[in-house]
Every structure is written in C-alpha cells, then in structure tokens.
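[Discussion] Sanity-checking designs against the backbone

I'm trying to build intuition for which residues belong where. Below is a structure token string of 286 positions. I'd appreciate it if someone posts a full sequence so I can compare it with mine line by line.
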C-alpha cells in the first residue's frame, strides 16, 4: 500500500476504519445532543481497561475491551437513572460520572504501575493518548472487525435509527420500539469509543466523535451526505494521525488526529463564510 510496510499499512487501514466509524456514530450522537455523553463514556471506560489489564496479567486487548465496555455501560446506566431517582440534572449527572470514573481509572492505573508486577507504565499511555503503532496485527483485526460490525448494525437499523434521531416521540406514538433503538444507539456509541481507545486515546476520542460530524454539517443539510462526509473526514484524519505517529514516535496519534480534524473544521468554516458572503453579494447586485 503506497510503498508502506505491511504492518504500517494494516495499522493505517485499521485506524481509518475507526475514524470512519466514529464519524458515522458521531453524526447520530451530535444530532441527538449526546456529545457530553460520549465524553463521559470515553473517560468512564478507563477503570474497565485497568481491570481487564489486571485480570489478564498484562496487555490483552480483548479483555481490556470487555472491561471498558462494561464500565461504559455502567456509566450510561448511571447517567440515565440519576435524573430519575433524584433532582440531579442530566448534565450534572454526566459531569459527575465522568469525573468519578476517570478518577477511579487514574487511581487504578497508578496502582498497577506501582505494583512492580507489570513494569513501566504498563502500556496505559496507548489508552490515554493513542498509540496505533504499538498495536499488533491481531489487535488491528479485532478493532476492524468491531468497527465493521457496528457499521453493519447501523445499516440494518438505519431507518429506525434516523427516525429516533429526528422524531422519537412520533415513532413512539406509532408503537415502534424507540426505547430499544435508543439503547442500541448508546451501545453502538459505547462500542465505537471503546474500540477507538488504543488508536486515539481516552482524552481525544470524543473529539473524533464530534468534530467530523460538526464539520460535515457545514457542507450539507442532507443526512446521507453528512454521514458520508463525516465518515471521510474521520477516516482521513485518523490515518494521517497514525501516519505522523509512525514517522515520529514523539507525536501522539490521538492529538495529531484531533488537530487534523480541527483544521478541517476551520477550513470548512472559512469556506462556508466566504461562500455565504459571496452569495449575499451576488443576490444584492442582481
């Protein structure tokens, strides 16, 4: 692939698939105003990563994914249940869950690192800041398979997912299982965040969920086009971030991916502004 070593090419393809999936799932999350929920899920997954690492006795991506997924589901449940059983507002519940879970994750990671059983930083930098270059080929296949499964589920439930995103109340009146679709979207958001952690990192993954979707919204009002543009931006930014990190290990892949996404957003914003100004001037002169 473009003269790159096989391992590097596979990693780039894997991270691009992660970015495309983030762009697709992020479009639904942004339109449903779940950006903060995504941030909470990303940070809440860290304790699960640590527990999976400890139980496996070292780096084991499958077990760490399982731990992160369960930890994320617990966070989602708490975010939804706290406003119902108390006077806590949703945004307050999100902020509280994010802080408590992330704090617990930092404590667990430090305890594991200082235990002397695993040595060094025990590989947690990859989950904090993203390090796709450290992934094994089997790990990339696992991540890619999870991303493909997520996209397939979205494709199979596309009409219901779009309907719940734009008018859940109407579909509920029609007797459709909107609550199940709502939970399915949360599960897919959790899955996408979890599988993206090794490539992008806990700190940066939420930006890859939000920024491509927001950028795509500047280019089109049609939902299908927004999905495609968002997926393209996510894939491109992730691949560039991984490539930069592979060329210079001092560059965190997650941070560079976010910077590329942000650059795309700023360029799109400027183009949209000048296009709108030109259109207004043309309308006035005519």
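Best answer:
Here's mine. Compare freely.
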């Amino acid at each position: 692939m473009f003269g790159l070593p096989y391992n590097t090419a596979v990693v780039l393809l894997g991270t691009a698939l992660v970015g495309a999936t983030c762009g697709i799932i992020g479009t639904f999350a942004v339109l449903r105003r779940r950006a903060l929920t995504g941030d909470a899920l990303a940070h809440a997954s860290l304790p699960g990563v640590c527990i999976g690492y400890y139980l496996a006795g070292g780096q084991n991506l499958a077990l760490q994914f399982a731990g992160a997924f369960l930890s994320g589901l617990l966070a989602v449940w708490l975010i939804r249940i706290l406003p119902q059983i108390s006077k806590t507002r949703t945004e307050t519940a999100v902020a509280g869950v994010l802080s408590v879970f992330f704090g617990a994750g930092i404590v667990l990671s430090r305890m594991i690192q200082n235990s002397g059983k695993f040595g060094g930083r025990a590989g947690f930098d990859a989950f904090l800041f993203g390090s796709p270059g450290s992934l094994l080929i089997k790990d990339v296949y696992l991540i890619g398979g999870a991303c493909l499964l997520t996209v397939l589920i979205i494709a199979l439930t596309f009409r219901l997912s779009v309907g719940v995103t734009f008018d859940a109340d109407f579909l509920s009146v029609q007797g459709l299982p909107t609550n199940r679709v709502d939970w399915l979207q949360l599960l897919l958001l959790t899955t996408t965040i979890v599988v993206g952690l090794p490539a992008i990192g806990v700190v940066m993954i939420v930006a890859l969920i939000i920024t491509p979707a927001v950028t795509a919204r500047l280019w089109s009002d049609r939902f299908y086009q927004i999905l495609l543009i968002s997926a393209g931006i996510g894939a491109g930014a992730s691949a560039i971030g991984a490539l930069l990190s592979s060329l210079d290990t001092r560059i965190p892949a997650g941070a560079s991916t976010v910077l590329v996404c942000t650059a795309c957003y700023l360029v799109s914003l400027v183009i949209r502004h000048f296009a709108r100004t030109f259109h207004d001037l043309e309308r006035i002169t005519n």
